[in-house]
């Protein structure tokens, strides 16, 4: 680890955050049209990356290169962890994930308990897709232009559990967003249980009115799953306005985070009844962990009527936090 970089700075990658903060402050409020021709701005952006001089990257939608400061921090973290993995990975580096998760929650104006860090958008969405209780004959609405891996995931459930996948067709470009809302509305039947929608279609860039579609789903008691892989950090929107049940995105696309990082949002009232893709002990269903089986101790919240427990990670020497319900 370089001597001039503190452990805290190293763990949380503040160099990359600092670069973004400087650019944000310097160009805040500058109209996009003016910024497009600002060569000084783009010079700073170019200097943050080391591209292949022989090729031009036009596919950040698949996976984007990380800025040099992010890449260097990632490489240093691997080197640092590899020297003593069982200690440095779990004791030093892993607790930092919790801080990142909370930062992402603040970025989305969401409850940190609703945010999970994953490997990519597909994993996030498959956690949502496989975790729902569905019965034979239950219908899932999506389109023929949604991401193939998400379609094949539903098709596997269709083969195994005899659910019904209905893929809706539409011609692009769609000029009136209300037409896309009607597309779903007209396909809803009494057996419809899930609406799966891409915020931005991966092949055409068609933007869906997910706020209105999720509102439609909520009004009919239907679960909404939003594929935000090509929207997050790409097109402007307020996440708090979407009001969906599940939202999955990749962080290594337009955000230029390290390759192999994604995020999943799950509405808080859906967490307890959702089946996790990675199984956990039954005791964790009610947020109760035996101190004999884990590295956590617990104590009751000091608020009189609150029934939540405060868990302390003994190795990381930190406590979880929650909003008291009293």
CATH class of the largest domain: Alpha Beta
Tally of helical runs: 11
Rg, alpha carbons: 22 Å
In CATH, the topology of the largest domain is named: Aspartate Aminotransferase, domain 2
Q: What's the main sheet like?
A: 7 strands, mixed
End-to-end gap: 46 Å
What low-confidence regions span 5 or more consecutive residues with pLDDT below 50?
1-17, 288-326
* Integer count of domains: 3
Helix content percent band: 25-40%
List the secondary-structure elements in sequence, H or E: HHHHHHEHEHEHEHEEEHEEE
SSE layout and pairing:
Elements (H helix, E strand, L loop, with lengths): L6 H6 L1 H14 L4 H5 L2 H9 L20 H16 L1 H24 L6 E4 L2 H10 L8 E5 L4 H14 L2 E5 L8 H9 L6 E7 L11 H10 L3 E5 L18 E5 L11 E5 L1 H4 L24 E5 L8 E5 L4 E2 L7
Parallel strand pairs: 2-3, 2-4, 4-5, 5-6
Antiparallel strand pairs: 1-7, 6-7, 8-9, 9-10
Helix pairs in contact: 5-6, 7-8
Give me a quick take on this structure.
With 326 residues, the chain is of the alpha/beta class.
Label this structure with key terms:
326 residues, alpha/beta, seven-stranded mixed beta sheet, three-stranded antiparallel beta sheet, Aspartate Aminotransferase, domain 2, disordered C terminus
């Amino acid at each position: 680890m370089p001597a001039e970089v503190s452990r805290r700075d190293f763990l949380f990658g503040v160099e990359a955050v600092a670069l973004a903060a400087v650019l944000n402050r310097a160009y805040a409020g500058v109209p996009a049209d003016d910024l497009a021709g600002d060569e000084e701005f783009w010079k700073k952006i170019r200097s943050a990356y080391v591209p292949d001089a022989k090729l031009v990257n036009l596919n950040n939608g698949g996976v984007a290169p990380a800025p040099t400061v992010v890449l260097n921090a990632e490489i240093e973290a691997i080197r640092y962890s590899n020297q003593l993995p069982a200690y440095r990975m779990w004791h030093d580096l892993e607790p930092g994930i919790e801080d990142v998760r909370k930062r992402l929650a603040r970025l989305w104006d969401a409850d940190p308990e609703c945010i999970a860090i994953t490997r990519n958008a597909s994993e996030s969405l498959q956690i949502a897709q496989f975790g729902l209780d569905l019965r034979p004959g239950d219908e899932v609405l999506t389109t023929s232009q949604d991401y193939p891996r998400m379609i094949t995931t539903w098709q596997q459930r269709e083969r195994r559990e005899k659910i019904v996948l209905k893929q809706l067709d539409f011609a692009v470009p769609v000029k009136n967003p209300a037409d896309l809302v009607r597309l779903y509305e007209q396909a809803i039947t009494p057996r419809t249980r899930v609406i799966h929608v891409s915020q931005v279609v991966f092949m055409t860039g068609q933007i869906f009115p997910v706020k209105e579609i999720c509102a439609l789903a909520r009004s009919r008691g239907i679960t909404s799953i939003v594929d935000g892989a090509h929207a997050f950090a790409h097109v402007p929107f307020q996440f708090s306005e979407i009001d969906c049940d599940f939202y999955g995105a990749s962080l290594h696309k337009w955000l230029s985070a390290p390759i192999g990082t994604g995020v999943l949002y799950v509405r808080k009232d859906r967490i307890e009844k959702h089946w996790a893709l990675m199984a956990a002990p039954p005791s964790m269903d009610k947020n109760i962990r035996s101190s004999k089986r884990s590295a956590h101790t617990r104590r009751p919240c000091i608020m009189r009527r609150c029934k939540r427990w405060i868990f302390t990670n003994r190795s990381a020497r930190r406590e979880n936090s929650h909003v008291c319900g009293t």
